[in-house]
Specification:
The complex is a heterodimer of chains A (about 650) and B (about 190). Chain A has about 650 residues and is α/β, with parallel strands linked by helices. Chain A contains 25 helices and 20 strands. A 4-stranded mixed beta sheet of chain B has the order 2-1-3-4, covered by helices on one side. The chains are: A alpha/beta (about 650), B alpha+beta (about 190).
Chain lengths: ~650, ~190
């Protein structure tokens, strides 16, 4: 096939990008979370220290790689070592990193985060041994193991070539002593002191795997949406282009037709990641099939779900992938204009998206006659203003039009009659960020991940009473317990887990006995919850389900736009009943009444907010009815004790 | 909480009515600086569809809140009824109609922060400043409010003090934060 104009134009654009290979670099995770933890101050410290010591290293700004519990994160590559990630970096540590690591070539104990990429082959000579005791009980054996390893190395005369470093986090939990060899990534778990000698002798000296200790489990995570987060500079288009941004779009524009692009997305099985899970390719096709002179695409970045921060992290870490996804969507459906609708509460995300748009426009990736194809497309940013209901499609459209965000009855769906009466396609941030990967790697590769009708990967923001709150990207079909225990290290302080809330105020609570359920849209729905935007909130034994349900319901009552009665009146009345119960003045009749209100709201509300608002209450009634009964039977004295326990963050037994 | 809302809401209605009366008041009474700023915002977004919310955002960004005069001026300049502007202003939580305090203390009340005890932070603030959630101290020095998720769930409970985010805040940190601002103010004065 002869090369088409856009592909050639893109190739020229790529050739113009300076290909730089830095010998040494320092990447600082500067997303909102990182900056809150002090990453901006680290930048100055690194700059100053490098100047003082004369170290030549390039400072780079990146988004977060998802390890929110280790903020601020600094990754650095020094000559002679593979890239190393440091967590919980403060200013004195930054000084030490420059002096000891960059200048002295010696890694710093207790702050290294092990890479999650684990291998079964010893590659080139390993020169770093990470060690960490991953069990929570008993004495920490890390230091002892370190000195034993050092002793063994000295015995074999390897102490100058290989260094032993105590790690901060291994990504493996409750597997005894963990030893990882870098840069190969071979990992040994449940290592006893007497095995350390064997590891040094066999693996480091003779380059052979110690089979009986090898950790064979691959990391449950697969990074598609977060592929570039934490490794590229979100404010630099060149860096994004070097990492393959816009390549898939250029190919779609140059070699395929819009129909082919839509088919590719349909084959991949990608479904909307905003909550409802409507197949993305079908949505694009529906919008394209409507006769119109003008169509719109909108990126929904109004992440209102409290406890979810994946959209913010994607926009702050890799805005070009979302922009590329939006451009692809626009090309596929034939839209002439696109909007980013972003929460005003995320100023950094807004700034980075605006920079990305400006940079793309400057290089001819946006605007008139994109890459010489004759196709025009413009993008604009619009800000949300703190209304949760504006995540709903029709309300979002009203908000972009400059009106108050009340939803409209559907049909007509936005794909037929949307923004200013034109066909409009609205996609979530995460959905759009998956599109470039699908275009480059093919629909088959994406389709091969997942289970049932849910294909590909999903990003979850795991927070609450979990040991390591972070962003997790796993293939669909992974179980909740794998996410919580294998990736996030289990529950904080080892209090027994009570349940996991998914989907925010519109979702439900999965009790402990259902944690082995593989996560798919259908499975969650069966359990009375939803996938939602991907918030996952872990609750332990000390949390009270009545209280949490009331919290969520209060959120929905506050956020109800007031247009339809079931949501406006039903929500308020139900909240009154819940508060009455939590004061210890409820009766069994109230539970019946709550059930009836829930049913009315679900069936008669106008939009998703009202229809799903009863979900947390219904699912807590379904799985934790005994807690409601305890309030009803225990009366006011029980309620007072429970409240006291909650306000002190203790269990009932401890507080009373 | 609800009572407070009701009071605030009736205040808004009252204000909207008053505004109709003051609509006759000459525009010259408007602060020229404010007027210039609003005009600039208008110019920037002129002719773009659905620009009202973005103009209001600009005004609030530059002025801290959306004063009544600004809305009045907008209504006249854009040729839309005042009620349309107030409909938008009161619907969205983000817009402020009254001047915020000099220092803003914001407690994140997202679910993750709630579970980790943001309620205790709120109570402590209320106690220390003797004001309720969403109120400003009498000397207009401190304004406190609880907000929806600020997206820092990894370091819950979080607080924002004058645009700076603090993570893993303990109840015992609150007094120090307030005291630091007070000392800063005293040394400035």
């Amino acid at each position: 096939m002869p090369e088409s104009v856009p592909v050639k134009a893109f190739q020229e654009l790529l050739d113009a990008v300076p290909q730089v290979l830095f010998e040494q670099w320092i990447r600082i995770g500067m997303d909102t979370g990182g900056i809150a933890a002090g990453a901006d101050r680290l930048w100055d410290v690194f700059e100053k220290e490098c100047a003082v010591t004369g170290v030549e290293a390039v400072l780079q700004r990146t988004g977060t790689c998802g390890y929110a519990y280790l903020d601020p994160l600094v990754e650095l590559k020094s000559s002679g070592h593979a890239p190393v990630l440091y967590g919980c970096v403060d200013e004195p540590l930054a000084v030490r990193i420059v002096r000891e690591h960059l200048l002295g070539g010696r890694l710093i104990d207790d702050f290294v985060v092990a890479p999650r990429r684990r291998s079964k082959d010893l590659g080139e000579a390993d020169n770093i041994v990470l060690v960490k005791d991953s069990s929570c009980e008993g004495e920490d054996r890390t230091a002892t193991a370190q000195s034993l390893l050092l002793k063994a190395l000295r015995h074999h005369g390897l102490q100058d070539r290989v260094q032993v470093v105590r790690a901060l986090d291994m990504g493996i939990y409750k597997e005894g002593l963990v030893v990882q060899l870098l840069p190969s990534g071979v990992t040994y778990t449940n290592v006893l002191n007497r095995d350390l000698e064997r590891i040094v002798e066999q693996s480091i000296r003779d380059r052979a795997i110690v089979e009986d200790l090898l950790f064979n489990e691959p990391d449950p995570q697969t990074r598609i949406v977060l592929r570039n987060c934490g490794s590229i500079d979100p404010e630099c288009l060149d860096d994004a282009l070097r990492h393959g941004a816009y390549a898939g779009f250029a190919r779609a524009l140059g070699q395929g037709s819009p129909g082919q692009t839509i088919d590719c997305i349909r084959e991949s099985g990608l479904r909307g990641r905003g909550g409802a899970g409507f197949p993305t390719g079908t949505k694009w096709k529906l919008t394209r099939d409507v006769e119109a002179d003008l169509r719109y695409v909108i990126c929904n970045a109004d992440e209102g779900d409290p406890g979810a921060f994946m959209d913010r992290s994607i926009l702050e870490g890799d805005p070009h992938s979302v922009l590329e996804g939006l451009m692809t969507a626009a090309y596929a459906i034939g839209a002439g204009k696109g909007y980013f609708y972003i929460r005003a509460e995320y100023p950094l995300a807004v700034k980075r998206v605006e920079l990305a748009i400006a940079a793309a426009r400057k290089r001819g990736l946006l605007g008139k006659n994109i890459l010489g194809s004759g196709w025009d497309f413009e993008v604009e940013v619009r800000l949300g203003a703190g209304a949760f209901v504006c995540g709903e499609e029709t309300a979002l459209i009203a908000s972009i039009e400059g009106k108050r965000g009340s939803p409209h009855p559907r049909p007509p769906y936005p794909s037929v009659k949307g923004l200013w009466g034109k066909p409009t396609c609205i996609n979530n941030v995460e959905t759009l960020a998956s599109v470039p990967w699908i275009l480059t790697n093919g629909a088959k590769a994406y389709e091969s991940l997942g289970s049932g009708n849910s294909r590909g990967t999903k990003v979850f923001a795991v927070t609450g009473k979990v040991r390591n709150p972070q962003l997790v990207e796993v293939p669909m079909g992974t179980t909740v317990s794998d996410i919580i225990y294998k990736v996030c290290g289990g529950v904080q302080d080892d209090v027994p887990i009570k349940g996991v809330q998914t989907g925010g105020p519109s979702g439900g609570i999965l009790p402990e006995k259902h944690l082995e359920t593989p996560i798919t849209y259908e499975n969650l729905q069966k359990l009375g919850s939803i996938m939602g935007s991907g918030g996952m909130l872990v609750m332990d034994e000390n949390d009270c389900m009545v209280d949490v349900s009331a919290f969520y319901l209060k959120f929905c009552v506050d956020e109800s736009c007031g247009k339809c009665a079931p949501c406006r009146v039903g929500g308020y009345q139900m909240l009154q009943l819940l508060l009455k119960i939590s004061r210890g003045r409820g009766s069994e009749d109230d539970l019946v009444q709550i059930d009836r209100i829930c049913e009315a709201m679900q069936s008669a509300s106008l939009c998703g907010l009202g229809q799903t608002a009863p979900n947390p209450v219904l699912s807590s009634l379904r799985f934790f009815r005994d807690e409601y009964s305890a309030y009803i039977e225990g009366g006011t004295s029980y309620a007072r004790k429970r409240k006291k326990a909650l306000s002190e963050g203790k269990s009932m037994k401890e507080a009373v | 909480m609800y009572k407070l809302r009701k009071i605030r809401f009736s205040y808004l209605i009252w204000e909207t009515f008053c505004m109709n009366a003051s609509a006759l008041a000459p525009m010259e009474t408007m602060d020229p600086e404010l007027r210039g700023m609003v005009e600039r915002c208008l110019q920037e977004w002129e002719g773009r569809e659905g620009n009202l919310i973005m103009i209001l955002h600009e005004i609030q960004n530059r002025h801290g809140f959306v004063p009544r005069e600004a809305s009045l001026f907008l209504a006249e300049a854009m040729g839309i009824p005042m009620a349309r502007i107030y409909e938008v202003l009161t619907f969205y939580h983000y817009f402020k109609l009254i001047a915020p305090g000099k220092h803003n203390l914001t407690v994140c009340n997202g679910t993750a922060c709630y579970l980790k005890g943001s309620g205790r932070l709120l109570t402590e603030l209320e106690r220390r400043l003797s004001i309720k959630d969403g109120e400003t101290t009498e000397d207009r020095m401190f304004h406190m409010e609880s907000v929806r998720c600020i997206g820092c769930c990894g370091m819950a409970p979080a607080m924002v003090v004058d645009q700076k985010t603090f993570g893993k805040v303990a109840v015992t940190d609150v007094a120090g934060m307030i005291e630091r601002i007070r000392l800063q103010e005293e040394s400035d004065a």
